[in-house]
Fold Peptidase A24.
Amino acid sequence: MNAPLWVVLPVIVLVTVATRADVQTRKIPNSLTIPASLLALIAHGVMGGRAGLLGSLAGLGLCLAAMLPGWLLRWMGAGDVKLMMAVGAWLAFPQAVIALLASFVAGGLISAGLALRRGLLGQALRGAALLGAWTLAAPLEPAPPPVTTGIRFPFALAVMAGTIFASWIRM
C-alpha cells in the first residue's frame, strides 16, 4: 500500500524545507529534524497504536543504521542522517526501506551527473568500484577507505527524491 495522506503531507513538507536549507546553507537544522522525528513517532502511535509506533521506530532505526557509516566516514553530514531518520519515522517500516534505497539511488545519479559535468566520471566510477571492494574486504583486512573525487552536494536533494518516490509506490 502507499502511504496515507496524513503521512505524505508532513513528510513532503519536511523534505522540502530541509532541501531548501541544505541547498542554501549546506546545513539541515536540528530544530527541523528532531521535532519531525518525535512528531512522527507520536502521530504513528496515535493513529496506529502500538503497531504504528513500532513501525515508525523501525523505520527510524533502520535509516539511522544505514546512514550512520556514511557520517562516520565523513561522506555526509549529521543533518543528512537525522533527515533520513525523520523520513524513516514518518514513512515507517517497510515504506522507509524504499525511501532509503531510492535516496541512495538518487544520490548516485546526482553524483554521476556532477562527475560527468566536471569531467570526472571515469575517476568517480573507479572510485565507486574501489569503495565497493574496500567495503567487502574491510572485515578481512583493515585499510583506510579509498580516495574519492571529493564531489559533494546537498544530499537532502536525494532524500527528497527518494521520499517522493516512496510516498506513492505501492507495495
